[in-house]
């Protein structure tokens, strides 16, 4: 007898690592994804960008234009744009972050780290008086252990220059188009999916997926973290799931009870261990590739791949 309910084909999910202003790498990676994924699957894929669209590379302006254009060019795809710590800080400088939920002022975020103000060269120009801490650091001037940063700790100078203004200039607030400001304002801090398939040693497994730029803190209640991230709680001086390192590397123990994929960028490496996926092979560096991982196949695709249709 014919099966009236054949198994549905798992939806393709593309998780794309940090881009950091490298438009040519992004265009080449997108072309390679389009080449190696079945056209009908690609046209309906879930595309998750893992954050850090700006800084380091020369073409942040063009990268944001590319990302903003995707929903109209690929209307059947679903596009998720996560905030990275660099994007958070860019948005903080432009004044597009949501106001603190308790009615406090952004200058309250300076207090925890104010002993670092001079060493990190925080921004003191126009509009700094009530700017979130990360915006001040992002637009500041800093030399790291004798090595010149590109403007600041965040290497933000190329972002300013991509909009035609020098690093640290308040003119950036006027130079950035409204659609770019809206894009930065709308970035989500976390994304959850309930039914994502992934190839494992035991075969194809259906899992929950959590995507967050750096990862979830190992020793904090997951539900509490998710609530804070969904609320975009800007009272926090440094949002660890967007900017942490060792403390967000592992999957929190409570998520191992129900199979949960945790996917991030941020860490400057490609690391796949069980259901923990870290996709940031480029780290924003000129000579490194921008990579993506395609689910359920777990295929790694890079901008440097030479694929033929």
From TrEMBL:
Pfam families: Metallophos. One of its GO terms (molecular function) is protein tyrosine phosphatase activity. Residues 13-151 form the Calcineurin-like phosphoesterase domain. One of its GO terms (cellular component) is cytosol. InterPro entries: Calcineurin-like_PHP (IPR004843), Metallo-depent_PP-like (IPR029052), Ser/Thr-sp_prot-phosphatase (IPR006186). PANTHER family: TYROSINE-PROTEIN PHOSPHATASE RLPH2. This is Tyrosine-protein phosphatase RLPH2. It comes from Nicotiana tabacum (Common tobacco).
């Amino acid at each position: 007898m014919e099966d009236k309910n054949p198994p549905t084909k798992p939806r393709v999910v593309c998780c794309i690592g940090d881009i950091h202003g490298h438009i040519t790498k992004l265009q080449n990676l997108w072309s390679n994804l389009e080449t190696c994924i079945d056209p009908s699957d690609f046209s309906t894929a879930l595309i998750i960008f893992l954050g850090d669209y700006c800084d380091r590379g020369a073409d942040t302006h063009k990268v944001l234009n590319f990302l903003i254009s995707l929903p109209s060019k690929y209307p059947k795809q679903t596009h998720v744009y996560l905030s990275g710590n660099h994007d958070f800080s860019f948005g903080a400088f432009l004044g597009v972050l949501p106001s603190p939920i308790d009615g406090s002022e952004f200058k309250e975020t300076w207090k925890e780290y104010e002993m670092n103000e001079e060493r990190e060269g925080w921004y003191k120009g126009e509009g700094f008086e009530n700017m979130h801490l990360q915006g001040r650091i992002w637009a500041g001037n800093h030399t790291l252990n004798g090595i010149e940063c590109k403007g600041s700790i965040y290497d933000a100078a190329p972002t300013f220059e991509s909009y035609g203004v020098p690093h640290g200039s308040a003119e950036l607030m006027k130079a950035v188009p409204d659609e770019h400001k809206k894009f930065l304002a709308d970035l989500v801090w976390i994304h959850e999916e309930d039914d994502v398939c992934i190839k494992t040693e035991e075969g194809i497994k259906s899992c929950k997926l959590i995507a967050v730029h750096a990862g979830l803190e190992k020793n904090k209640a997951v539900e509490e973290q998710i609530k804070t991230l969904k609320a975009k709680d800007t009272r926090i001086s440094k949002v660890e799931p967007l900017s942490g390192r060792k403390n967000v590397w592992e999957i929190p123990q409570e998520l191992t009870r129900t199979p949960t994929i945790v996917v991030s960028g941020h860490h400057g490496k490609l690391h796949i261990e069980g259901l923990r996926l870290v996709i940031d092979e480029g780290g924003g560096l000129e000579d490194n590739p921008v990579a993506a991982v395609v689910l359920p196949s777990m295929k790694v695709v890079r901008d440097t791949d030479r694929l033929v249709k």
